[in-house]
Every structure is written in C-alpha cells, then in structure tokens.
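Exercise 7.
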Amino acid sequence: LERLDHLLMLVLAASALQFASKPFIAGALGGWGANPQSYVQTGYALVSQSLGTVFGLALALLALAILVRDVLAEAMSKSETDTLSRLLNRGGFERHAELALRDAVRRGVPVALVIADLDHFKRINDSYGHACGDRVIETFAGLLREAAAEHHVAGRIGGEEF
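Solution. The predicted structure, written as tokens, is:
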C-alpha cells in the first residue's frame, strides 16, 4: 500500500475510535444533556461535532487525493501503452528504459538491450491482410510479456519493432 492508503486507514481507525469512545467522552465532559435542546449547550456536543467534522473533512480530502492519484496513474499508463500490443509505446519505453538504466548504473549491475524486428512483416499484411498482421503483433507482444520479468522493460517502438 502507498502512503495515502496508509494515511486513510489511520484516519478511519482514529474516526472509529472516536466514535466508539463517545460515551466515555460524554461522561468526562458532564453528559450529553437532558434533552435535544440542552445537548447543543454541552461541551460534549462541541467536542463530538468538531471531531466528526474534522474526521469527515480529512476522509473526504484523502478520498479525493487517492482518486486523483489513481486517475493520473491510469492516464499516464494509457498514454504510455500501445493499444494493439498492450506493451509500452515508444515514449513509454524510452522513459521506463531510461529509469531502468539509471537504476542499473546506480546499483552497478549489467544491462542488456534486445531489439526485435519482425522480418517480412509487410508481406504478411499484404498477403493475409492487416487483421492477420495485427494478430502477429499481438501474439509476439504476448510472448514478450510472458518472457519479461517484472523489472524488465518491454515495448513496441515502431510498426513491427519491439
């Protein structure tokens, strides 16, 4: 889980604790009043309503921040993903490859770069149609996804170039 998710769990736990402790807070502050009209005059009402408002606002802001984070992550992923191969597109590949190379240099580990070009791909499209060519790209991309470990960077950088 990420930092915002941990913070959300913490605020939810604190809110639940505050809710569960309401009878004790009321007892410590002199009760919650004899009737609804006197409730608003009590110290308990001030504390209870204030804490409820603070927790409600904190939860709303955290939910909004998490929503924005998730929407931005999805938009970034879509902007970097080739729709046909479901691999990184050229821009996404370049960005992720640069990060991977920097990480490898920092850790002092070797790096390998493999570039694959599907030979005679134009003949496949011309002979069997673009739908068949798309299937070839999808199938090859699937093989790359299966072969690539989580820390590997795989992408479609051109028409039939991976």
